[in-house]
Amino acid sequence: MQVAITYMAKWRLKEYHNYVWTNCKKLINLNTGREIKKTLNGLTAGYWINRKFIKLTDMSSIVELIPNNRVAANDPILKLLDDMLPEWARD
Fold this sequence. Notes:
Elements (H helix, E strand, L loop, with lengths): L8 E5 L5 E4 L4 E3 L4 E3 L2 E3 L2 E6 L2 E4 L3 H4 E3 L3 H4 L3 H9 L7
């Protein structure tokens, strides 16, 4: 039996786009599909990302909202391709 869970990603790391936070504040590695747990290194809370410990206090400078492709796409060719999609294939 298999159970599938779908998360909506809202934030990501600027340097590592495969690490995203969901609306329910879980950090997910998109390459492995695993949840990354918040840990303590000494007395400092943070996450281990690519064998590097990143403190929670440093997170605000390296986290960004995931851009909406429809808003960020100012390219007329991409807009033309989007208009060519059938209605059921659009977001």
